[in-house]
């Protein structure tokens, strides 16, 4: 029995060390959203220590615009053991900034060692910021191309038209849709 206890202690310590160095956060919350356990972690995504997180209602850290979604998902998942829901929301960091987090919440209320909803999440703020920047640049360049009086065309490696700006209609009398997929040289005089 003593060896078995030591073995469990070593495995528990190993598991704790693995969790502590994971960039994902793991919480156990009750059906009201109150944190009853937070896995030990060196990465405080929202700036909270393990001790500060326990007892906190996660809904207090959720961006007001995202709160209805969070409440709906906690309520739905809380109804049925084994049910899982995904989320992407903004959560308040202790420095006052909102961080984008992506995660899942799973109902483990019927498991005696857990008895709660397990929330796994990680910080996606940098990815969201980069995605927003790309979308902004795409909108800006699309506007420049679509408002240009010059025709801008894109061709595939096998000389097929992929894109023509709307000005092609004024210049050649074709709509961009009529030209998509056609041979690049079809409209060029042979000489």
Descriptive report:
The chain is an alpha+beta fold. The chain is built from six helices and seven strands. The strands form two sheets. It has a five-stranded antiparallel beta sheet with strand order 2-1-5-4-3, sandwiched between helices. A two-stranded antiparallel sheet has the order 6-7. It starts with a helix and ends in a 12-residue tail after the last helix.
Q: How are the elements arranged and paired?
A:
Elements: H1 2-20, E1 25-29, E2 35-38, H2 50-53, H3 67-78, E3 84-92, E4 98-107, E5 117-123, H4 125-147, E6 153-155, E7 161-164, H5 168-172, H6 176-179
Antiparallel strand pairs: 1-2, 1-5, 3-4, 4-5, 6-7
Features:
191 residues, alpha+beta, five-stranded antiparallel sheet, two-stranded antiparallel sheet, 6 helices, 7 strands, disordered N terminus
Seen as an oligomer or otherwise, the chain set is: single chain
By secondary-structure content and strand pairing, the structural class works out as alpha+beta
Q: How far is the N terminus from the C terminus?
A: 94 Å
Order of helices and strands: HEEHHEEEHEEHH
Tell me about the biggest sheet? Answer: 5 strands, antiparallel
Number of strands: 7
Question: Judging from the principal axes of the Cα atoms, what is the shape?
Answer: elongated
Strand order of the largest sheet: 2-1-5-4-3
Helix content: 25-40%
Please count the helical segments.
6
**Overall average residue pLDDT:** 86
Radius of gyration: 27 Å
Our estimate of the beta-strand percent is 15-25%
Unreliable stretches, pLDDT < 50, 5 or more residues? 1-8
């Amino acid at each position: 029995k003593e060896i078995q206890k030591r073995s469990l202690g070593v495995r528990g310590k190993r598991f704790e060390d693995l969790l502590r160095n994971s960039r994902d956060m793991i919480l156990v919350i009750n059906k009201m959203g109150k944190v009853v356990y937070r896995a030990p972690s060196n990465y405080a995504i929202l700036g909270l220590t393990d001790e500060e997180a326990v007892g906190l209602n996660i809904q207090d850290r959720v961006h007001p615009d995202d709160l209805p979604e969070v409440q709906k998902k906690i309520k739905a998942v809380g109804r049925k053991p084994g049910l899982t829901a995904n989320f992407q929301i903004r959560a308040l960091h202790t420095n006052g900034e909102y961080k984008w987090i992506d995660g899942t919440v799973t109902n483990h209320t019927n498991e005696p060692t857990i008895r709660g909803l397990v929330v796994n999440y990680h910080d996606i703020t940098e990815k969201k910021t980069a995605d927003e920047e790309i979308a902004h640049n795409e909108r800006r360049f699309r506007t420049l191309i679509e408002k240009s009086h010059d025709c801008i065309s894109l061709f595939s490696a096998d000389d097929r038209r992929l894109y023509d700006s709307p000005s092609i209609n004024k210049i050649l009398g074709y709509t961009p849709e009529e030209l998509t997929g056609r041979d690049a040289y079809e409209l060029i005089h042979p000489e």
